[in-house]
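Suppose a colleague, Dr. K., hands you the sequence of a protein chain of 123 amino acids and asks what its three-dimensional shape might be. Before reaching for any lab equipment, you can write down a predicted structure in token form. Begin with the sequence itself:
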Amino acid sequence: QVQLVESGGGLVQAGGSLRLSCAASGRTFRSSFMGWFRQAPGKERDFVAAILWSSGQTYYADSVKGRFTISRDNAKNTGYLQMDSLKPEDTAVYYCAALRGGSIYRRDSYDYWGQGAQVTVSS
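The predicted structure, expressed as tokens, is then:
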């Protein structure tokens, strides 16, 4: 059984920063990806970023490129999403997920999900 536990969400003003954490248990990501998605009210759950655990290679959605940074700590089996220069349109519930297989950009490629962390950016 895989468990992903997120932490670090909250309320921040536009231009501010937050860091989300995703602690994994029951599975290591050594040869796979951890991804981050977000879902705003009334919208689809969209890809934000992903990291190949073994090499640290990263991938980003165009909307967050240059502002968000995904990283991981192998020893802690924990992934992070550093979010800087936040905008009101970044407001959403953020989810980390473990890739099962397929495209890293598709949510149906992931089989385990965290509980979600609310991020609210005020203008």
